[in-house]
Amino acid sequence: MSKPAVVIDPHFRSMGEIFSTADRQRLTEVVDVVWGRDEPMPVELAREALADARAVVCSGWRYGPVPTNVRAILDVSGAFPADLDYRACFTQGTRVLSAAPAFGPQVAEMALALALAVSRQVVDGDSALRAGTEKWLHAGNTGTFQLFDQPVGLIGYGSIARNLRELLRPFGCPISVYDPWLADGYLRSQGVSPVALPELLSSSRVIFVLASPTMENGALLSREMLEQIDSNSVLILISRAHVVDFDALTELLMARRFRAGIDVFPAEPLPADHPIRSAPGTVLSAHRAGSIQEALWEIGRMVVDDLEAVALDLPPQRLQQAQPELINRLVRYR
């Protein structure tokens, strides 16, 4: 049986970044690779190739109308592609898939690391010891707390949150969730408690901001909402700064209103003079949660797994599928 043609045009990502040697070999065994290079495929050449392709692997959509023969679009950027006619895709049965689930484990791991670093004041303790101003034993633990049995709140319950829930399991934390895109019954079936956002903010010792950016949640965590966080609590911002009033967050952290761990910022790279750089009780990370090489290879593994299904006219199972009810409510970055 002949292999289906698939356009592989992952730029801005490189082939080696997302495909391990083993998965690149699997890729050539499953499909007839068209292009498969690090540099971007010329648009006219790509449009010609798509006329005979079963699927396309890309980082964003720049090829114009989607031919009806294309059964799947697999975006490896980590988001759903902008500039794509989703209505046409749904009508003609073209599945649109995002590699977002590949980032779940590594980002969840970083979220947990930040929570522990902030709650146990690991960075402050290290800095004090290096400066010769450390306090030992009990005196050095003033204001710290352990994560075990602490109430945790998750804002958003997608792939990152589901991975984080498993990492939190040994700590025995009761978990509350605010996610208006999921029904309460589903959340309860996951072993978490659905709550309103104000309740989550006021009752959680550790709050993880995990929500994807949507047309509806810009600055969801307004100054009014942020002020409901208890002074002994920790906020972990790990998804997108879009969800938070970052100016208000910065002011509250500078005033020691609560503590935080932050991996994402409104402008990246972060301006050198941004006041958040000197916020006390805050651990900062330069958007490093989702860029570990062995974890990036999970993108390629999932892509090849789903291309195997597409080649057999079976539904893909590994990547996240665009949902007609929700896709136009997401903020899609170019």
Automatic annotation (TrEMBL):
GO terms for molecular function: glyoxylate reductase (NADPH) activity; hydroxypyruvate reductase [NAD(P)H] activity; NAD binding. The keyword Flavoprotein does not apply. Keywords: NAD, Oxidoreductase. It comes from the Bacteria. The keyword NAD applies. GO terms for cellular component: cytosol. Residues 112-289 form the D-isomer specific 2-hydroxyacid dehydrogenase NAD-binding domain. Pfam families: 2-Hacid_dh_C. This is Hydroxyacid dehydrogenase.
